[in-house]
Amino acid sequence: KVIATEKAPAAIGPYSQAYVNNGVLYIGQLGINPEEEILGGDTIEEQAEWSCKNVGEILKAAGTDYE
């Protein structure tokens, strides 16, 4: 099952934001600000924060969270 949300950056090319296979959720995400579609800051810390925010939105779309 493919998981997608508009609250995280869209997948580019033949990829998905996430998918569920045999009960396991697989997520691939970068530190991109989805509103501006650019890297979310100049430092690795800022980009890591955006990546975590994006993963959180994808988790919500999949019906789960970080817990």
Report what the structure shows:
- The chain is of the alpha+beta class.
- The chain is 27% helix and 21% strand.
- It has one helix and five strands.
- The protein has one helix at residues 44-61; strands at residues 2-3, 18-21, 24-27, 32-33, 38-39.
- A three-stranded antiparallel sheet has the order 1-2-3.
- Strand 4 and strand 5 form a beta hairpin.
- The mean pLDDT is 92.
Please list the strands of the largest sheet in the order they lie side by side.
Answer: 1-2-3
In DSSP terms, counting alpha (H) and pi (I) runs of 4 or more, how many helices? 1
The total of beta strands comes to 5
Inertia-based shape: globular
What order do the helices and strands follow? EEEEEH
* Biggest beta sheet attributes: 3 strands, antiparallel
- Label the structural class: alpha+beta
**Unreliable stretches, pLDDT < 50, 5 or more residues?**
none
Approximate helicity band: 25-40%
Radius of gyration: 12 Å
Query: What amount of the residues lies in strands?
Result: 15-25%
Gap from first CA to last CA:
21 Å
- Mean pLDDT, to the nearest integer, reads 92
Provide a short characterization of the protein structure.
The protein is of the alpha+beta class and 67 residues long. It contains 1 helix and 5 strands, in the order E-E-E-E-E-H.
Layout of strands and helices, then pairs:
Layout: E1 2-3, E2 18-21, E3 24-27, E4 32-33, E5 38-39, H1 44-61
Antiparallel strand pairs: 1-2, 2-3, 4-5
Output the keywords.
about 70 residues; alpha+beta; 3-stranded antiparallel sheet; 1 helix; 5 strands; about 25% helix; globular
